[in-house]
C-alpha cells in the first residue's frame, strides 16, 4: 500500500488523489486549489477529472462568481467508500493498536514511526514499529511469536512488511545515554499505539539515567 496515497490501492489514476482531497474537507474548493492540494498531475488534468466526477454525481460543482467550486457529495452511495479509502493509514494504526492490546504479554510501549507515521511512504516502504519491553534478557518464545504474528497480519492488511525495532528499557536508557540519532526520529514522528507515550517514557527513563 502506498502510505502517502492509500486511495491509490484501489484508484491508481488521478481520480484517487482528487477524491482524497475532497474527502478531507467539507468546504468547496476550486479546481486550482484541488490541484495544489493533490500535488500530482496537471491542473488541466485535475479539472477534467473533476468534471467527469461531477457528471457521476459523486462530486458537486457550483458556479461561484467566475470560478467553479467542487465538493464531495457525501450523500452519494459511493461517498462512504471514498472516505474509507482515504482513511486507510488511520485504520492501519487502529488495527495495530487493537492487535497489540490482545497480546498475552504486553509491551511497556509500542509506537509506529518512520514513513508510516509521517504518511510519506510508498509501495516499498516498511511499517516501522518500535517496541519497548521490560525483559531483562532475551524475550521468551511466546513474545517473539506474537510479534511475528503481528508482522504477518500487517503484511496481509497492507502488502507492506513490518520492520520491528525491539529493545528493553535498559537498552533504551543506553540509547538515551549515548544520544542515538534514531531517538530524535522517535520523538519527532512516533504515534503511540500501546502503553506510555514515548515522550513520557523517555522523560522517565532520562531521569533514571541522570541519577546514575
- Give the overall average pLDDT: 94
Distance between the termini: 45 Å
Q: Tell me what the CATH architecture of the largest domain is.
A: 2-Layer Sandwich
Strand content: 15-25%
Number of helices: 10
- Largest beta-sheet characterization: 4 strands, mixed
Radius of gyration: 22 Å
CATH superfamily of the largest domain: Beta Polymerase, domain 2
User: Helicity, in percent?
Assistant: 40-55%
| CATH fold category name of the largest domain | Beta Polymerase, domain 2
Structural class: alpha+beta
The ordered string of helix (H) and strand (E) elements is HEHHEEHHEHEHEHHEH
Shape: elongated
Strand order of the largest sheet: 6-5-4-7
Explained architecture:
This protein has 212 residues and is of the alpha+beta class. It folds into 2 domains: 6-85, Winged helix-like DNA-binding domain superfamily/Winged helix DNA-binding domain (Arc Repressor Mutant, subunit A, Orthogonal Bundle); 88-211, 2-Layer Sandwich (Beta Polymerase, domain 2). The chain has 10 helices and 7 strands. The protein has helices at residues 15-23, 31-38, 43-56, 79-86, 88-101, 115-118, 141-158, 169-178, 181-189, 198-211, and strands at 29-30, 59-64, 67-72, 109-113, 127-133, 162-168, 191-195. The strands form 2 sheets. The chain has a 4-stranded mixed sheet, with helices on both faces. α1 crosses α2. The longest helix is centred in the last third of the chain and has 18 residues, at 141-158. The N and C termini lie far apart (45 Å). The mean pLDDT is 94.
